């Protein structure tokens, strides 16, 4: 169960974008198109998982005093692999993401998981942590991108939804719109989290009440006097 929690914590409970609010530079900059979000999310997830695994496996060999430079070398290696793959097979996506692919090296999410988790835990737990956090980041930027692309361009994955009939609010795909949409999504996530906590609290309170009621001593019923059942008896 603990490993399932490690895998799923990044989706909502500790979502890096919506709860921890880190790694916001690519979140604000590239979420104008769903293709950008999918490409960035998968790229960051790959780097996060692989760097977590390598850092966890070799954590005892990294000198404590220079551990951060060692982490950066590991992360930069996998970031270079991602950039070369995108440049070779997806040149349009590589051009659209631009500088934010090399900047994965210093992405707060990846550096934070390397320092706070992978350098202290086993390989399997670190891999699950990387997958969960990467998927949480990907989910968050996909939601933000979908909102911005629909409202700002009236399209999905670059394909117009309808031919006319809606005037897009172009400010949504600009910098101010990024902050507004991000704030709204964070607020919605916080509302869902609060509702879930309140539901769990109410369920626990109900269980405690039932337990107290079942444990409460009941007054014993005394049997009726024998004469009471015989009216008119002597």
Explain this structure.
The structure is a single chain. With 234 residues, this protein is an all-alpha fold. The protein has one domain (2-158, 168-195). The protein has helices spanning 2-8, 24-29, 34-57, 67-89, 91-97, 108-118, 123-153, 175-215; strands at 155-156, 159-160. A two-stranded antiparallel sheet has the order 1-2. Helix 6 packs antiparallel against helix 7 (123-153). The radius of gyration is 28 Å and the shape is flat. It starts with a helix and ends in a 19-residue tail after the last helix. 30% of the residues are buried.
List the helices and strands and how they pair.
Blueprint: H1 2-8, H2 24-29, H3 34-57, H4 67-89, H5 91-97, H6 108-118, H7 123-153, E1 155-156, E2 159-160, H8 175-215
Antiparallel strand pairs: 1-2
Helix pairs in contact: 1-7, 3-4, 3-6, 3-7, 4-5, 4-6, 6-7, 7-8
Compact summary:
With 234 residues, the protein is an all-alpha fold.
Tally of contiguous helical segments: 8
Poorly predicted regions are none
Number of strands: 2
Based on CA atoms alone, the radius of gyration comes out at 28 Å
Helix content: 55-70%
Q: Mean pLDDT, rounded to whole units? A: 88
Largest sheet: 2 strands, antiparallel
Which class of secondary structure composition applies to the elements?
mainly alpha
> How large is the share of residues in beta strands?
under 5%
Order of helices and strands: HHHHHHHEEH
Q: Major sheet: order of its strands?
A: 1-2
Distance between the termini: 72 Å
Number of domains: 1
| Outline | flat
């Amino acid at each position: 169960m603990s490993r399932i929690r490690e895998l799923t914590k990044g989706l909502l409970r500790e979502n890096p974008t919506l709860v921890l609010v880190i790694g916001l530079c690519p979140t604000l900059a590239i979420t104008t198109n769903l293709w950008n979000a999918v490409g960035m999310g998968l790229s960051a997830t790959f780097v996060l998982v692989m760097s977590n695994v390598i850092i966890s496996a070799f954590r005892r060999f990294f000198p404590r005093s220079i551990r951060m430079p060692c982490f950066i070398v590991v992360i930069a290696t996998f970031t270079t692999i991602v950039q070369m793959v995108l440049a070779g097979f997806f040149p349009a996506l590589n051009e659209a993401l631009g500088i934010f692919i090399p900047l994965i090296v210093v992405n707060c999410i990846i550096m934070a998981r390397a320092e706070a988790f992978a350098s202290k835990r086993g390989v399997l737990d670190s891999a699950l942590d990387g997958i969960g956090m990467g998927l949480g980041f990907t989910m968050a930027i996909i939601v933000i991108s979908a909102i911005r692309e629909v409202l700002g361009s009236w399209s999905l994955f670059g394909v117009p939804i309808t031919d006319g009939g809606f005037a897009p609010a172009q400010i949504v795909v600009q910098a101010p719109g990024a902050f507004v949409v991000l704030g709204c999504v964070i607020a919605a996530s916080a509302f869902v989290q609060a509702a879930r906590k309140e539901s769990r609290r109410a369920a626990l309170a109900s269980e405690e009440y039932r337990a107290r009621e079942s444990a409460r001593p009941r007054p014993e019923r005394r049997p009726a006097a024998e004469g009471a059942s015989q009216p008119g008896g002597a």
